[in-house]
Amino acid sequence: MATAAAIQIGIPDAYLQLSPAEWTERITAAKAALGERLLILGHHYQKDEVIQFADLTGDSFKLARLAAENRTAEYIVFCGVHFMAETADILTGDHQRVILPDLNAGCSMADMANPDEVEECWQLVQETFGDTTIPITYVNSAAVLKAFCGQRGGAVCTSSNARKILDWAFHNGDRVLFFPDEHLGRNTALAMGLADRELVVYNQRTASFEWLPGQSPEDVRVILWKGFCSVHQRFQPAQVQALRDQYPGIRVIVHPECNHDVVAAADQFGSTEYIISQIEAAPAGTVWAIGTEVNLVHRLAKQHPEQTILSLNPIVCPCTTMSRISPYHLTWALESLRRGEVVNQISVPNAIAVWAKRALDTMLTIA
């Protein structure tokens, strides 16, 4: 059973020698043999060569809900990253086992907040603002940090429901500690009408707040963690303007993990599922620039040839950790299950899972 610190050991060399035709045949055969005992979940950022085998696809929020709703599959193979597999384990039944094909598929943003740092921040928050702060963690975080929020009356959020979760938090406290993504927190708060001076950044590297000139604790309603997504940080306002110059009338839609100046320059922003829904509803002839992970952008362009769909950044922006899930690892994991051997099981200790589930249940309820 794997923990967050587990490292993927090498898989048999024979798997790495498989041709696309061979791994396609073997994955298909393993799926057929396992039947309803198996459910493969695939995040939208996966490569096409992996996502084609997913039974269900979605963003973090949708996949969490799908995992929670399924009570049939004995094995849930998660083609995503570690925190997603942890979430699935927390939300599924005791009779179900969650497998991550490559344990090295992590999330750099999730790694930007660890329990010791969050505890240190929480102590300073209590000293500075009193005890009326609600902790909210983005779903891109370790299970232990979801438990941290659950124990303290907080919740988990996704980019799909961050605004609703912040509304809920403001009804239960005076302010919010939002981690680990500074940009989702900032973009959501500003869209709700909060002013810049009502936000303060906590820098975990210096264990201190980054106050604005003249700002005081009484001004603050949202405390933002200094974390980010490396993919979405590669989008810049200049790219928005360059494409507007090249394609008059282009629509620009970006993910809320982007910097606020990119979000402000775009026409729309929203979660991965929101982006997909906007493209699917758009009329033929529409021209779009999308600021999110490139595997999804390319897939949408293939699925909607009646539109012109471009990546906001002309230089490819893949999620390298998400891309660690390969057809070779998927073949190995499925064939191991077919032999009765469970590999790379993700299992969250019950002491953590109980409190993490409380925070996740709030996330799922406030959809």
Radius of gyration: 21 Å
CATH architecture of the largest domain: 3-Layer(aba) Sandwich
Secondary structural class = alpha/beta
User: Which CATH top level class of the largest domain fits?
Assistant: Alpha Beta
How many helical elements?
A: 15
Using the alpha-carbon principal axes, give the shape: globular
N- and C-termini, Cα separation: 31 Å
What portion of the residues fall into strands of 2 or more residues? 15-25%
Strand/helix succession: HHEHEHEHEHEHEHEHEEEHEHEHEHEHEH
Domain count: 3
Number of strands: 15
What value does the average pLDDT take?
Answer: 94
- Spans of at least 5 consecutive residues whose pLDDT stays below 50 are 1-5
CATH topology of the largest domain: Rossmann fold
**Biggest β-sheet: strands ordered side by side in the sheet:** 6-5-7-10-8-9
Largest sheet: 6 strands, mixed
Overall helicity: 40-55%
CATH-defined superfamily of the largest domain: NadA-like
Account of the 3D structure:
41% of the residues lie in helices and 16% in strands. The protein has a 6-stranded mixed sheet with strand order 6-5-7-10-8-9, with helices on both faces. Helix 11 links the parallel strand 11 and strand 12. Helix 4 packs parallel to helix 5 and helix 7 crosses helix 15. The longest helix has 16 residues. The protein starts with 12 loop residues before the first helix and ends with a helix. The N terminus is likely disordered.
